[in-house]
């Protein structure tokens, strides 16, 4: 039977979610989560990050094909994305 954990998470003033250690321990201490809002609930799934070269190999691609695809995607996004107003920079949180 799978272990479960019930506890409260806290949202800080800086919109950071503090997840109790007991809940993370049950999940084997993940560092990244996929986030979705579903029917008024915040749902988190633990995910494992994979290096691009490893992902390419798993898909039967070489690393150069993966880089080429990423660059093509970035070029397409740059064409669609509206320009930033003069004097303003995009913020990264």
UniProtKB/TrEMBL annotation:
Sequence segments annotated as region (Disordered): 70-93
Name of the protein this chain belongs to: AbrB/MazE/SpoVT family DNA-binding domain-containing protein
Species name: Roseomonas elaeocarpi
Taxonomic lineage: Bacteria, Pseudomonadati, Pseudomonadota, Alphaproteobacteria, Acetobacterales
């Amino acid at each position: 039977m799978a272990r479960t954990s019930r506890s409260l998470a806290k949202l800080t003033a800086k919109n950071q979610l503090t997840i109790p250690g007991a809940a993370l321990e049950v999940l084997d201490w993940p560092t990244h989560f996929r986030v979705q809002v579903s029917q008024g609930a915040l749902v988190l799934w633990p995910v494992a990050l994979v290096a691009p070269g490893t992902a390419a190999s798993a898909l039967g691609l070489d690393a150069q094909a993966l880089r080429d695809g990423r660059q093509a995607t970035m070029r397409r996004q740059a064409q669609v994305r509206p320009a930033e107003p003069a004097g303003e920079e995009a913020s990264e949180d």
